[in-house]
């Protein structure tokens, strides 16, 4: 039956598995959050701004206890002292520590939003600013790691190209090109997120429409990576 062919199509099954994960739902909500931010500015839509606030709060709920993931990742990178590069290792350690701090502080923001804790100068102004500083610190560490990845991949490409064109070397060359592309893509991703956080901190004064589009772009990057990882 036509209905069965649609219901049991591999792409539909993969979509169900994707949305069945907390990470999948959180990334989808991030896309909707920034899309509403763009639409709210572009069309002066009150509904879009209300939806943006709701999506933001729901995402914070879905990320409850997520700092533990980043603490564990930071510990793994720190313990991996036989890795290929020390700069890359420390960049990953620092990035995950900043990400853990960012998500932990964001839980305080969640408690304030749902009125579990009162709005004070500390919870209403200082904590949100510290949260953005932690996000920025993680992005800076990520950019350093991304630049190092590009440098290492480029050195391998040059070395392989100079050595010859055996079949084994061609496979390694292709893998190095792919690694360089992934690192460059992640660099663009981090710079776009940095554009958002610099606006949050007040160092840039961009329109909400531009910030929303930057968030849509980085959300699509995240969804693409998560979709590829979904089985």
Amino- and carboxy-terminal Cα gap: 25 Å
DSSP helical segment count: 9
| Arithmetic mean of pLDDT | 92
Q: Tell how many strands the DSSP assignment holds.
A: 0
Radius of gyration: 21 Å
Largest β sheet strand count, sense and barrel closure: none
Q: What class, by secondary structure content?
A: mainly alpha
Beta-strand percentage range: under 5%
What is the share of helical residues? over 70%
Main location: membrane
Protein name: Peroxisomal membrane protein PMP27
Subcellular location: Peroxisome membrane
GO cellular component, one term: endoplasmic reticulum
Would you kindly provide a written description of the structure presented here, covering whatever features stand out?
The protein has 231 residues and is mainly alpha-helical. The chain has one domain. The chain has 9 helices and no strands. α6 runs antiparallel to α7 and α8 runs antiparallel to α9. It is globular, with a radius of gyration of 21 Å. Keywords: Membrane, Peroxisome, Peroxisome biogenesis. It is found in: Peroxisome membrane. It holds the Pfam family PEX11. This is Peroxisomal membrane protein PMP27.
């Amino acid at each position: 039956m036509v209905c069965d062919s649609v219901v049991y199509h591999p792409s539909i099954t993969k979509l169900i598995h994707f949305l069945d994960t907390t990470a999948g739902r959180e990334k989808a909500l991030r896309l909707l959050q920034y899309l509403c931010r763009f639409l709210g500015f572009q069309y002066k839509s009150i509904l879009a701004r209300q939806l943006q606030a709701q999506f933001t709060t729901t995402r914070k709920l879905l990320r409850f206890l997520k700092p533990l993931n980043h603490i564990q990742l930071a510990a793994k990178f720190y313990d991996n002292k036989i890795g290929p590069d020390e700069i890359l290792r420390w960049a990953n350690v620092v990035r995950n520590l900043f990400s853990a701090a960012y998500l932990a502080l964001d839980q305080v923001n969640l408690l304030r939003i749902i009125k579990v804790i009162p709005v004070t100068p500390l919870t209403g102004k200082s904590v949100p600013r510290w949260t953005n500083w932690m996000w920025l610190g993680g992005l800076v560490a990520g950019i350093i790691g991304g630049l190092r990845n590009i440098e290492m991949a480029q050195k391998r490409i040059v070395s392989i190209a100079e050595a010859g064109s055996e079949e084994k070397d061609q496979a390694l060359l292709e893998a190095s090109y792919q690694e360089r592309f992934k690192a460059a893509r992640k660099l663009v991703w981090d710079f776009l997120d940095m554009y958002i956080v610099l606006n949050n901190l007040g160092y840039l004064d961009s329109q909400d429409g531009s910030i929303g589009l930057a968030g849509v772009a980085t959300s699509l990057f995240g969804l693409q990576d998560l979709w590829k990882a979904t089985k």
